[in-house]
Amino acid sequence: QVQLVESGGGSVQAGGSLRLSCAASGLGLHNYAMAWFRQPPGKEREGLSCISWSGGSTYYADSVKGRFTISRNNAKNTVYLQMNNVKPEDAATYYCAADRTWRRPDCSRAEYEYDDWGQGTQVSVSS
After folding, report:
1. Of 4, 8, 15, 17, whose CA is between 20 and 30 Å from 125?
2. CB atoms within 10 A of CB 57
3. Contacts of 44 (CB under 8 A, 6+ apart)
């Protein structure tokens, strides 16, 4: 059984930093693209960032480009989202997801491409 577990969420002051982690069990992440999505209260879920299985291809939404960094440690079966210069509009529940397309060369921004999802971790931002 595949399980993705996000951690690292919490409360942060605007301008501060936070690092989210997504640890997998039941699935070796090293062959699959991974992504982070978020869902602010009362809004739809949006794709933030993704990373290919090798780490060679990444994508960032305009809203987080230059502030957030996605990375992966395949040896630890974990994906990270480093959030810097956090803004009030970054407050949301953050989800990681795995795309089980075997070693696709890039990564997708589309929710429907992702097969496994974590339960989410909440980030709140105080100004």
Report:
1. 4
2. 14
3. none
Q: What is the pLDDT of residues 18-53, one digit of tens each?
A: 999 999 988 888 999 999 999 999 999 999 999 999
Question: Which residues, in sequence order, are bridge partners of residue 50?
Answer: 35, 59
Instruction: Select from 23, 105, 97 the least CA-distant residue to 58.
Output: 105
Strand ranges in 1-127 using DSSP code E only, listed in sequence order: 3-7, 10-13, 18-25, 33-39, 46-51, 58-60, 68-73, 78-83, 92-99, 116-117, 121-126
CB 14 within 8 Å of CB 126: yes
Query: Do 2 and 25 form a contact (C-beta atoms < 8 A)?
Result: yes
Q: Identify the three-state secondary structure at position 30.
A: helix
Alpha-carbon span 123 to 63, nearest angstrom: 16
* Local confidence band at 127 (pLDDT 50, 70, 90 cut-offs): confident
Indicate the DSSP class of residue 62: T
Choose among 116, 97, 85, 96: nearest CA to 14: 85
- Give every CB contact of residue 112 below 8 A, 6+ residues apart in sequence: none
